[in-house]
Amino acid sequence: MEKVWLGLGSNMGDSAQILELAVQDLSKMLSDMHVSGLWRSRARYYEEQEDFYNMVVCGMTELNPRQLLDSIHDIEACYGRNRSREIKKGPRTLDIDILLYGGKIITEPDLIIPHPGLAERKFALLPLLEIDPSLIHPVLGVPLKMLAASLPPQGIYPASESQYDEPYPE
């Protein structure tokens, strides 16, 4: 058994509902699961799209990293994700990323753990820290709290609130 942390995001359809259902699907492959609150974030990279809803789940799995990735892709496809037809970093019904897999470091063409964008993405770091504030980045050797604190505002806030971490232009 290995502890894993997964980042979930959606900005198409009823995103909050999709994430809730995806968590239920993930509970079939993760035991002792913990779920962050729902966060809302401004789109990054490809900015001409709706805001995202994000969350993180962690739990124990018997799946190896490749099996976990395949299972995640199956879940995404169930919610309409078609990687071959989408805009890179663009709108999607469901995105599930393996943020951390224990303390393992994996570098394969289609599987990199820890997630290569983790250190720069508050939409992953803040919900991750909500459920596990003592995590250390396995490659950088730096507490994730320090990474999050070093980043500028990126337009993310708990979905139950209505204020980004910076003023949101109208």
Indicate the CATH class. Answer: Alpha Beta
In DSSP terms, counting alpha (H) and pi (I) runs of 4 or more, how many helices?
4
Give, in order, the helices and strands. Answer: EHEEEHEEEHHE
Low-confidence stretches: none
Q: Provide the CATH topology.
A: Alpha-Beta Plaits
Assembly type of the chains comes to: single chain
Number of strand elements? 8
Q: What is the domain total for the residues?
A: 1
Main sheet, how many strands, which sense, barrel? 6 strands, antiparallel
The rounded Rg comes to 15 Å
Q: Give the helix proportion (percent range).
A: 25-40%
Find the CATH superfamily.
7,8-Dihydro-6-hydroxymethylpterin-pyrophosphokinase HPPK
Description:
The protein is built from 4 helices and 8 strands, in the order βαβββαβββααβ. The strands form 2 sheets. Strands 1, 2, 3, 4, 5 and 8 form a 6-stranded antiparallel sheet that branches. Helices cover 25% and strands 25% of the residues. The chain has a single domain, classed as 7,8-Dihydro-6-hydroxymethylpterin-pyrophosphokinase HPPK (Alpha-Beta Plaits, 2-Layer Sandwich). The longest helix is centred in the middle third of the chain and has 14 residues. One of its GO terms (molecular function) is ATP binding. Pathway: Cofactor biosynthesis; tetrahydrofolate biosynthesis; 2-amino-4-hydroxy-6-hydroxymethyl-7,8-dihydropteridine diphosphate from 7,8-dihydroneopterin triphosphate: step 4/4.
Give a topology summary.
Blueprint: E1 2-10, H1 15-26, E2 31-35, E3 39-41, E4 52-61, H2 65-78, E5 95-101, E6 106-108, E7 111-113, H3 122-131, H4 144-150, E8 156-158
